[in-house]
Amino acid sequence: MKTKAERNTRRYKEIRKAIFIPGLAAFSQFYMFQPLLPSLSESFLVSPAVSSLVVSSSMIGDLLDGLSLKLDRKKRFKRIKKW
After folding, report:
1. What is the distance, to the nearest Å, from the Cα of residue 25 to the centroid of all Cα atoms in its chain?
2. Sign of torsion, CA 25 27 32 35?
3. How far apart are the C-alpha atoms of 6 and 59, rounded to whole Å?
4. pLDDT tens, 41-57?
5. What does the alpha-carbon distance between residue 30 and residue 23 come to, in Å, rounded to a whole number?
6. What is the pLDDT of residue 83?
7. What is the SS3 assignment for 2?
8. Is residue 17 in some structural domain?
9. Closest Cα partner for 54 from 22, 27, 29, 23?
10. Mind listing the pLDDT tens digit for each residue in 22-81?
11. Which domain holds residue 75?
C-alpha cells in the first residue's frame, strides 16, 4: 500500500472527506447554540452577553478535551519508553 495518496485519485478524495467532515462537525457545534441565545436571555432574565456564555462554555469544554488527550498521549509515551 502506498503511504502517500496521489492528487485527484479516489483515495486522495476520500482522505480529504475524512478530514473535512469531522472538522466541519466540530466547528459547527460551536454555533449550534446561537439560535437559542435570545430564548435563554428571555427565560433566565439575563442580558444577551451573559447568555452567550453558553457558546463560550462549549469552546472551553472542547479545549479541555483536547488538553486531556494531549496529556494522556504523553503518559502513554512515557510508559512505552520505560518498557
Report:
1. 8
2. negative
3. 35
4. 999 999 988 988 888 88
5. 12
6. 54
7. coil
8. yes
9. 29
10. 888 878 877 777 888 899 899 999 998 898 888 888 788 878 887 887 777 766 666 655
11. 10-82
Identity of the residue numbered 77:
F
The single residue listed with the C-alpha cell 433566565 is 44
Question: Does 4 reside within a domain?
Answer: no
Quick one: angle between helices 53-82 and 10-31, nearest 10?
130
pLDDT band for 2, please (50, 70, 90 cuts).
low
The backbone torsions φ and ψ at residue 32, rounded to the nearest 5 degrees and listed phi first, read -65, -35
**Residue 27 located in a structural domain:** yes
Residues 41/47, Cβ–Cβ less than 8 Å = yes
Placement of cell 502513554 in the chain: 76
Domain count, the chain: 1
Query: DSSP for 10-60?
Result: HHHHHHHHHHHHHHHHHHHHHHTTGGGHHHHHHHTT--HHHHTHHHHHHHH
